[in-house]
Structures are given as structure tokens and as C-alpha cells.
Model the fold of this input.
Amino acid sequence: MPEVVQSDRKIDSAALNELLSESIDDARARESTTFDVAAGGRASTIVLFGAGGLGRRTLAGLRAAGTEPVAFSDNRKDLWGTELDELRVLSPVDAAEEFGTSAAFVVTIWGAGSPHRLAHTVEQLRSLGCETVLPTAWLYWRYADQLLPFYALDLPSKLLGQAADVRRCFELLADDQSRHEFVDQVRWRLTGDPGHLSHPVSGEQYLVDDVARVVEGEVVLDCGAYDGDTLRSWLNVRGPSFKKYFAMEPDPHNRDLLEQCIEGLESDIAERVQVLPYSVAGYTGEATFSATGSLSSSIGDGDGITVQCIRLDDLEADFGEDIPTFVKIDVEGTEIDALGGGSGFLRRARPMIAIATYHCQDHLWRVPLAIHALWSEYLLYLRPHNEEGWDLILYAVPTDRVHRD
Done:
């Protein structure tokens, strides 16, 4: 189990105030110069270390800005000596030999579910003789028009423009661990250095047991059920303890996998699981959905398939007597809309909520503030479940479910 750093509230409050003391004008100047200053004379000679999705996205953005990297480099041997998007891919050794003293190596490795941290690659490349190794965020700030926003990465000046809400959110958090995590998350958003972030906590995502009592007979509403991963986690950790499990998943491919998962369960468990082919949203109607068949399937911007969206307030009647007591919301960036579309139901039912706060820079504070507006008696806890900012979950716990000593 990773060591939990407990911090004094006053210390974290002072640290937060110091972080937020930078002026917006100073932040804007820093955004536009950090990469160039750190890269020195190598700012125009860029090696993208990591030829996966983030690397290829970065390449496309740089090309749109009129900048052409000199190469990809990657640890995957099957890519060495090939080209991706018409850019050659070098082994780390070859990249270091050719560009170690002349290029800025930008680490374009940042994936949910990966144990990778920036420090791992910095150590690897420096041991090979690469003199300048930089985080992705600094490059993204430099080319913000082409590359931002991207999940929690965005410009520091945007965060500073909402400093009052950031401070207000900090005061709502229920324990030292949450407040310390919050300050570290703000620091990362402002500095671009993920080394400030803690390691994941122990326990299954959405199901940590240190923030609330576990109860029998839950009615679970799983918004963003994917392929049944949270259902499987529930069964592994808590067994078939739920009375009813509503699994919402709009992506047809993911939903097929979800239904296969349910078919593999014992009949007395499977009959308590109901699949709902909706995307939870701020309105009821149709939307275009980017059906990627992955964890990142989401409401799209014009490309994809048409799916049915539904407000939780409009779904409430379908629950009948099975009113959800535990609601998970992880819907690829539309969490705020989901809360707005379920405000009536959530105020009435007051379930425990486990909700993602990592899809957008400002969800770190906007999601807690939105839940506090629903019911001010919720106790709010932040817990990281993955490395470098991924899978940061807010647990909103009703007062009657808090652990009592």
C-alpha cells in the first residue's frame, strides 16, 4: 500500500494560496516561453519520445503549427526503423546517438492504466546522453492553439482565472488526504510537472472503503459501464451484495462486451443486472457518439454514431422501487452535464456518488462545487487511482454513510 502523506490543513492552504498568487499576465508569459527557455537552442529540433496515441496527436498538432519534429523514438522494438505518419521511429539508443546533444526530447507518454511516470523516461534518456528531456505540457503550452485542451492539460492562466472557485473547493474537502491531493493537482496543472503528483491509493477505483461504510443491498447506477469492468470490480471486492445494478453504456461494441460479461455470471446475479443503452447527459434526446470501443468512447462533435442521451431526472421513473443508493459517473468529460441533468433526482435520492474529475482541467474544482450545490451536506473526498493525473475520483458521501469511530 502506498504511503499516505498526511498534511496540516494550514500548510496546504498556505501552499495553495502561494500557487494562486501568480498573476494571469505572468502566467501567460510563462506559458509562451517555458518550452523555449527550457529547450534553449534546441527548441526547433524536437524528438517525440513515445510513438503511441499521444505522440501521433502531438505530431499532428505541431505540423498544423508549421513545426516538423526530426523523429519519433520509442521503446517498442517492433517500431524501430519504421515510419509512423511519415516520421521515422528510432530506438532510444539511436535517437540519443543522433540527437542527444542537439535536440529537445519531449516525453509523449501519458496513458491511463500505465505505471509510467515522466521520471522513468527522464532517467532513461539522460543515462543515454540526452541532455534536454522535457514534459509534454510545456510543449502543449507553446502550441496551445493546436494542442490544448487535452484532458486535464490546459493553460495555467485559465486555472488562475478561476482562483476564487479553486479556493472555495479546497475548503469543502473532508480530510487532509483530499486537501493534499487537491493542492498537488493544482500544482501539476500550473507547473506542467507530473512529478508533483502522488501514486495511486490502494483499493479498487470507485470502491475505496476508507471514505464510507460499505452497506448491503445497494442499488447501483453505473454511468459509463464500459465492458463491465466496474461490475467485475464490485463482484471481486464486495461480492454479489447489490440488490440491483443498472449498467449504462451507449457504445454498441462496449455494450456487447458488457452483455457477454453479464451472461457469464451466475443466473441469480445476472438477473439483478440491467443494461441501459443510454449516455447520461444534460438533456434527453439524440447525440453523436464517438464509438471507439474503448474506455474513451464519448459524446462526439459530429463524427460517429447516433445514440440516445438521457437525463437522470427523466430516467428516475424507470427505477421504480429500486432507487439508486450508489451512483458512479465516469462519462469522458460530460460529468458536469450529467450532474445538471440529474439534479432533481440526486437532491431527492442523495446517493453516494463516485465521479471522475480528471477529464478536464477545471473539473478538479467544478465537479466538487457542482455536487456541493446539489446537497451541501455531502462529505467530499478525492482519491487518485492511477498515475500522473488519471482516474482521479471524487467520492461524495452522505453523512449517514461516513465511518464512525
Q: What stands out?
A: Confidence is low (pLDDT under 50) at residues 1-5, 292-298. Residues 104 and 130 are 8 Å apart (CA to CA).
